[in-house]
Amino acid sequence: MIFKQTAYLFIGLLYLLSSLIPGYAFQNDLEQKINEIEKIKDVASAVHQLTLLENNEELTSIQKCKILHAKAIVYYSQDKFDEALKAFQKTKNFASTNKLKKEEALVNKYIGIIHYYQGSNQEALDFYQKSLKYFTQADTPVEHANLLNNIALVYAAMGDTLSALDQYQKAEQLYLNYGTIEDQIDIRGNIAELYLRLKLHDSAITLLLEVLEQKQLLNDQDGIATTYADLGVSYKHAKQYKKALYYTEQALNYYQKNNRDYYIAAQLNNLSDLYNQQLEADLAINYAEAAIGVAKLSKNQNAEVGALYELAVGLFHLGYVEESLTQLDLSHEKALKMNYQQQINNNLALYSLIYAYQKNNKEALSTQQDYINEFYKHTNDQTNKRLVRYESEQLKEKVRNLEQTTKLQELERQKLNQERNFTIVIIIFIFISAFYLYRRIKDIRSKGELAKKIKIRTLELVELTQELQLANQVKSQFLANMSHEIRTPLTAVIGQSEAILSGEIKGECLSKEVKVIHSNSLHVLDLINSILDLSKIEANKLELDLHHQDLHGVFIELINMFLDQAKSKGLSFIITHRLPTPFIIKFDAFRLKQILINLCANAIKFTQHGSVELSVYVSNNQLIFKVTDTGIGMSDTQIQDIFKSFTQGDSSISRRFGGSGLGLSLSKQLASIMQGEIKVESELNVGSVFSFILPCDYSFGVDDKFEITQVLDKPKISDDVSCKGLVILADDYEDNLRIIERILTTMGLEVLTALNGKEAVEHYKNSKPSLILLDIQMPEMDGIEAFNVLRQQGCEVPIVALTANAMSHEIDEYLSLGFDGHLKKPIERQLFINTIVKYCCDSHKAKEQEEKVSNIDTSDLVERFRSNLVLEQEDLILHLKNNDNEKLANLAHRIAGAGQMFGFTELSEKAIAVEYAIKNDLPDIHVFTQYLLNEIDAVLW
To answer: Cis (ω within 30 of 0) for the bond into 582?
Structure first.
């Protein structure tokens, strides 16, 4: 009887399977496509492909709903919460219209998650409750547990720890019965966060370390980063600041590497809090301001409210009470709207300190911190007891579950012994039949797909062949152009060099011939730089260096560069504008000058008689540069090709005027990167007008008067503004010595350099200096030792500390020792010049000296610094291999100071990280050193 029923069941199963396999196959293909699309990092591309799937008219309602849901998930996974919220709302409306209750419940859960991330706790709770109505009744215990877990997080954020604990208890029981090991680990991490809110730091740390170990075994990178962040907060409250800083920075590095702005804001806020607790207000303010900026960008209201509070604490510490109160008001207003109870309590405590302010800021801040700790200690006693009872009940429940499981297993074992053999035979037979049926269907489909792929691949090969032929033509054109352009100046360089070496050039003509070599060498260098810039643009690696600057400085440089060149050809070169003075806008001065120099140089090159004029004006929030000449002009056909690489108007122009044809192509692409454009108007044998249009946000009105600027001669600095005297300069890094020495000699001063304090003392004995500049950190004898020795020997000359150690307490220490002043590295030229003028020049000559120093060419020193980095790199590797951390820290300190001095900011930051890691005995010093070695490679190549 049992066998007959089983046979009927099997025949029915086969029939149902054969009829449903095409539908299942389509469903599986659709889900596979959706999964693949969700992994695409480019949001626009992923949404586009999902839209194409959505347009299939054969889709069922539930399939279309899954595609709409997948669109929302794409936005959500990239932290684009506003777009995700709109997409989820559209999915919710569709699911509600088509009565898809499960899909609507899932959408409600995700909308609640987004509101939670944005700090809207009450809205998050409302949507979670709507979703809970479905999952409480549905047979989906894991989904039910996930929702309870999310609700607990909201209650915890709102300060209702008892409700949060109840939800965690229900969720964990479901996870123990039905969830995976990952689910159980996640909820333990959330309970650890609850420990943090209850100030049970030791318990939180113990639990988090267990969670971290499990996350590492599972290679869950996001989970590891989250646990790092929680450990940072736990160690911070436990006052173990070094460990707190280490784990918080580990989390921050991960989120920065993956561009997760929402989480970056939270970690910056944690760092601000960490430094406030250590009474390092300057660093706390810096991190708080950074956190506010990123939080606004990512709409992380929790981080923004917290960072405003930390900024208020830092300002209060420094004595800026009114500014502190302003920031605290902003934090409190937002916290009240969010029902963020913990932040409200913190704000109230700081309000009490501000209202009771009596000038002793540090003591006030310390008292406020004690108040918060005591407040939580008393208010959480009841919850702590509940938590202990909860853990005890959990242990008992696990014992009961174990006993019941043992009995059930025994019963199941007896039942399985009776049915196992028969069941195995039936299952194997069903699977074999289903397998052969599936293979038949798959073979039919595979043949169709193979024919389609062959057709597509054939078309791709045809297109690839055409692209390779075109690339070969471009390569041949490039090699021909570059061969001609590079060989021409190199022929002159080699010919003149051979003539000099063979003695054919007389002594009085030697300078002239060297100038020819120098001119042609610069031409080759300019050509190579243009090719490299084009390569960077094509590889999308050219970045703009934007700063607020006065545009008039660019005008002065253009006049200095082209006035003599124009006069030598008998042309007039003028710049006309209607801009106020100064005209401050944010732009990349180097790239703007590169474009204007190309346009002006071409205009002068192709103009034989008449004038070249650069006019500048603002119209409709656009800054417009027009270069007008009376040169040879161009035809319409020539205009079509002038912006192509390696192209000029025609071959005759190339023969008459020379050039590679790269300038306008490069300028066009640079303009595009700057969100601008270049237009051209021209008439053959009449002249040309090139217009460079650049978007411009400015705060100055346009004068009615049309000003004309025409400089007849380059500005000169008279010799009578030079300073006089001797300066002793001590620094253990030769590259630093060279650049500072050049500034001082340009100002007219004599300089004696020393590599340590001992040499500086010897120089003083043998000379009469007007000023002594001492680096603090030097070998043999540091700056402070040298200062003491000099004063003991009766030295009354002003001595200024010159160092990268520029923290406020360090500056106070130098001044308290008796230093006459302090200058930080990298050099801030205006402050540096004012200090030197104070001791070596008349005070009214500071502006002239600033103008004089601004024209210093340090390009040779920069190249020499880069060359020396090769040796520094070898020393870093040697010290790292020998585990000589002291020498490694000293070398990193030197590289940090010099890197900032020569404009290599990232190099300096990596070196500072190495020095900091060694001084604070952090783990993974070799990792920080490898980052520094990689950055040196980037600088060199």
So the answer is: yes
Rg of the chain, C-alpha, whole Å: 37
| Residue 682 backbone phi and psi in degrees, to 5 | -155, 150
Tell me: the pLDDT tens digits for 623-675?
Answer: 999 999 998 888 877 787 777 654 554 444 443 444 445 677 778 888 888 88
Task: Give the DSSP H/E element, type plus range, for residue 614.
Answer: strand 611-619
Peptide bond into 826 cis (omega under 30): yes
Q: How far apart are CA 507 and CA 488, in angstroms?
A: 26
**pLDDT of amino acid 292:** 92
Identify the burial level of 397 via C-beta atoms within 10 angstroms of its C-beta, where 0-12 means exposed, 13-18 middle and 19 or more buried. Answer: middle
Q: Which helix (H) or strand (E) holds 744?
A: helix 734-746
First to last CA, the chain: 83
d(CA 596, CA 604): 12
- Give residues with Cβ within 8 angstroms of 706, minimum separation 6: 576, 578
Interatomic CA distance for residues 714 and 859, integer angstroms: 22
pLDDT the model gives residue 489: 63
Q: Which of 677, 665, 672 is nearest to 622 (CA)?
A: 677
Residue ranges, the chain, pLDDT below 50: 1-5, 7-11, 13-24, 378, 381-382, 385, 388, 395, 399, 484, 646, 649-660, 700-721
Alpha-carbon torsion, ordered 201, 205, 211, 217, to 10 deg: 160
Q: Which residues contact 633 (CB under 8 A, 6 or more apart)?
A: 682, 683, 684, 685, 686, 687, 688
Q: What is the DSSP letter of 882?
A: T
Helix axes 181-197, 161-178, angle to 10 degrees: 170
Please give the pLDDT value at position 379: 53
Tens of pLDDT, residues 256-272: 898 888 889 888 998 98
Sign of torsion, CA 354 356 360 365? negative
pLDDT of residue 461: 78
Measured between alpha carbons, how far is 490 from 519 in angstroms, rounded to an integer?
11
- Whose tokens are 């971290």? That residue is 212
| Nearest alpha-carbon partner for 492 in 516, 461, 467 | 516
**Residue 624 backbone class (left: φ over 0; alpha: ψ -120 to 50; beta: rest):** beta
Four-CA torsion 571, 572, 577, 581, nearest 10 degrees: 120
Long-range pairs of 69-76 with CB within 8 A, sequence gap ≥ 24: 69/103, 69/106, 69/107, 70/34, 70/37, 70/38, 71/47, 72/107, 72/110, 73/38, 73/110, 74/37, 74/38, 74/40, 74/43, 74/46, 74/47, 74/50, 75/43, 75/47, 76/110, 76/113, 76/114
State the pairing for strand pair 572-577/750-754: unpaired
Q: Which two tokens stand for residue 34?
A: 């959706």
- Beta-bridge partner residues of 774: 730, 801
